[in-house]
Write a structure and sequence with these properties.
There is one protein chain. By secondary structure, the chain is mostly helical. It has helices at 13-31, 61-76, 81-101, 103-111, 118-130, 143-148, 152-176, and strands at 33-37, 56-60. Strands 1-2 form a two-stranded antiparallel sheet. The model is unreliable at 37-41 (pLDDT under 50).
């Protein structure tokens, strides 16, 4: 009996290892939760606990990303309509720029703009997210500083985290900001 040739592409070991790493990161991300205290129920309502103690609730990393992005995007909804349109447009383009050019190039491009420019606001949002406690650049304080002073593994983790976070920013920008 002769073997039949395999149909489809033959993937390299490096490609398969990278795919496994991404799948593992996504699985860990879905399992990672944080305990947060739930507000106590108002007096006179049945909260299920007669002692009045606050019950902790589980908050996933996805929920943390969404809450952070939602708070900022809703604040941008107070800005003038023409600025909202620009923010919405640039927010929808940023994930593709990270994918195509990398986190470092995209961050440098968005940071190069003036302080009140919508590009710079998006840079500041991403920098604030990636530099907070529990994120890849927590000890760096700023996105570009983190990019230039960490190892490749930390950079790759930050880029994957940026893509996940920016998907929330893009969705909330579409929902809450004016569109062209």
């Amino acid at each position: 009996m002769s073997k039949k040739p395999r149909k489809g592409k033959s993937y390299s070991k490096a490609y398969k290892a990278k795919a496994r790493e991404k799948a593992t990161m996504a699985e860990q991300d879905s399992k990672q939760v944080t305990m947060q205290a739930e507000p106590a129920a108002p007096p006179g309502t049945d909260s299920g606990a007669s002692s009045g103690l606050q019950q902790p609730r589980l908050v996933t990393l996805q929920q943390q990303r969404a809450a952070f992005a939602l708070e900022r995007v809703q604040a941008w909804a107070e800005r003038p309509v023409d600025e909202q349109k620009k923010l919405n447009s640039y927010a929808s383009k940023m994930p593709f720029m990270v994918h195509a050019n990398g986190l470092g190039q995209t961050a440098a491009f968005y940071r190069a703009k003036k302080e009140n420019d919508p590009h710079h606001l998006l840079y500041r949002l991403l920098s604030d997210w990636l530099a907070q406690q529990g994120q890849p650049f927590a000890e760096q304080g700023d996105l570009l500083n983190g990019i230039t002073h960490t190892d490749l593994h930390t950079y790759m983790v930050a880029q994957a985290e940026a893509m996940l976070f920016l998907s929330w920013v893009k969705q909330f920008a579409d929902a809450f900001l004016a569109q062209e």
